[in-house]
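Attaching the record inline, Q. Sequence:
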Amino acid sequence: MTLDLLREPLIQTDAGWFSLPGLLAAMARGEMQGFPALRPHQRPAWHMFLVQLSVLALDAAGHRGLPQDEETWRAALRALTPGYPEDEPWHLIGLDRTRPAFLQPADPGGLKWSGVATPDALDMLITSRNHDVKREIARQAAPQDWIFALVSLQTMEGFGGAGNYGIARMNGGSSSRVLLGLAPTRGASTQIDPSGWWSRDVACLLDGRTGIAGKALIWQEPWPEGQSLDLSALDPLFIEVCRRIQLTSVDGRIEAARSTSKAARIAGKEVKGNLGDPWAPVHLSEGKSLTLSDQDWTHELLFRLLFKSPPEWAVPPLADRQARDARGPMLLVAEAFARGNSKTDGFKSRMVPVPLAMVRELFGERPKAIAPGVLVDIAAVDLALRNGLVIVAAGGVREKVKSEHYNRSLHARKALRRQADMMFFPELWTRMSATSDAGFTPIRRAFLKQLARIARDEFDRALPAMPCSSLMRPRAEARGRQALEYGLARAMPEKAAEDTHVEA
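Structure, as predicted:
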């Protein structure tokens, strides 16, 4: 049993089971809309893998379009591994350990191997409390479960302790490989069209290619112990492997083994993940790729990545608008693991619907001019809520406010900001649709009134938990509410200040 990805239908989709070239042909025809067995945290790795692989195969074969037949794709993929007439690098189960298999480098000899029971135990996921996705539960795993786990591990993993190095496409071993891109929607829905997304990204990357420029499928290359590949020897879209893994078949059941290495597979620490990954934001002054560290895809972070002026980060090529994107609404897709020291803080995913009218202007001057104003309005309401609660916590006496009183406001402010976070992009699109100052002011006023209602609700919810003596509480709450309303009134556009409380 070798489980040949080039010929056997090992991958399940909503349109049936396919071999790897059959899958790419079905996606080129637009027939495939989902992978039922793909786990949510594996989606970015699987998408990036399919795109990179497709671009490399088509470029090497001299194709500039997307073939819609399986045989053309099979020939293009096979041409990437010319040194293996038996297609060993495409077998999920290796013929023997001295030859590579799919995403599994050959064993150079002299290594110690340890068993891995299930594909989810092989996957990259490391959590301090095993809470995001439970480990070692896939006891009845299918071959595709191992395929997805291998792609996730080998193309996304970070440093996991001595001898367990991470990928080169991240800024250090405790960083993230980030996917930030635009994806077509499925019809009029707000769901990704996987085939359309793959087709778009492949076409965008293929446009600028002129042939394979170095080693591409790293798992087929020999891996002598203690040696690393130099970046200059690699094609910019190389598909890496960071760990020594081997799959075998025992009594008809797939088992895995892993070993360590004395050096990282690719010597790229000094470039800080800045390898031209087309989904990765790169810091303009520091030259490092983005790390999602102990945070989420908040509107503040996305603002810094996309709209800050002057820019702080370079927008990834596949997050930028392409001419072909003007055909329908899109989704801004942001996904990554928030990583810490040999653990993750969870898989973070956010999808922002972008209406068709806004797709055309997404990275123009208008959002850069308008987005800061939305942030200012959110910050003003947040400040009003903070000041109101702080006065209550201090017993109604402003002169007695201390740092611990500010901490008392955090829970309510986080609740406000969570709701403001969901409102940010719809508000930005609405403000961008205004064609005059006369039309802009009512839009802003309505947004601030909505935020003000939320702030008042959170203020009321927080009051019972505020420590204050019963004797002083009436005065403290009255003065706190007064401070809240003063702050909300100041946040309003001048002409609307007098009706702030009445209509909110």
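The two ends are 68 Å apart (CA to CA). The chain has two domains: 11-359, 365-503.

More tomorrow.
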